[in-house]
C-alpha cells in the first residue's frame, strides 16, 4: 500500500472519528450540572462539513466555576479522546486539541454574560440549551447586518497601500519571502474589501478560512 493510498484510506474515515468525538463531547458535557449550554460554530454550525472539518465547540458554564473550567480546559479535552498535542495559551479561554485520529477540536469556554447577539452567532448547532439562552441569542442575531464603518474602510485602505509599498521594497532588496508575505496580505486585503462591499463581515485579518 502506497503512502497516498494509506492517507486517503485514513481520510475517508475522518467523519466517523469526528462523530465519535462529538458523541464523547456531548456525553461528557451535557451531564455536567455546571454546563449551561453546548453548541457548535464553524462548518458544523453552518451544516457545511467535509472530510477535513474540525469541531468548533462552545461551552457556557456557570460564572462561579468559569475560572476552574478554563484552567482545566486541556484536561477536559483529554476526556474525549486520545490527544496527540495541544495548541494552548494558559491565559486564554480556548484550547485546541489535535487528536491522533487527525480531528481537531477548538473548545471555547464562556460565561452567561458573554453570550450576546452578533453576526457570528447567526448559524449555530445547539446540542444543549435547557434555559433557551443560546436559542435567544441566535434569534436576536438573525436580523443583524454588517455595514463597515468609515474607520474600518480607512484602516483597510491605508494597510492595502502599506503592503503594496512594502512588497516593492522587499523585492528591491531581494528579500523574496518577505515580499511574498506582503503579496499574500494584499490578496487577503482584496478579499476583505470585496466582503465589506458585499455587506459580509470579513474574518479577522490573517484568517483565510471561508
Describe the structure.
With 210 residues, the protein is α+β, with helices and mostly antiparallel strands. 47% of the residues lie in helices and 18% in strands. It is built from eight helices and six strands; from the N terminus they run ααβαβααββββααα. Strands 3-4-5-2-1-6 form a six-stranded mixed beta sheet, sandwiched between helices. It is globular and about 60 Å long. The two termini are 34 Å apart. The mean pLDDT is 95.
Distance between the termini: 34 Å
Shape: globular
How does the major sheet shape up?
Answer: 6 strands, mixed
> Can you list the strand order of the major beta sheet?
3-4-5-2-1-6
In percent terms, what proportion of residues is strand? 15-25%
- The portion of residues assigned to helices is 40-55%
Count of extended strands: 6
> Rounded to an integer, what's the Rg over CA atoms?
20 Å
Structural class category: alpha+beta
The parts where pLDDT drops under 50 for at least 5 residues are none
**Alpha plus pi helix count:** 8
Q: What order do the helices and strands follow?
A: HHEHEHHEEEEHHH
- What's the average pLDDT? 95
Helices and strands in order, then pairings?
Blueprint: H1 3-12, H2 14-30, E1 35-40, H3 42-46, E2 55-61, H4 66-71, H5 73-78, E3 83-88, E4 94-99, E5 104-111, E6 125-128, H6 133-141, H7 150-172, H8 176-198
Helix pairs in contact: 7-8
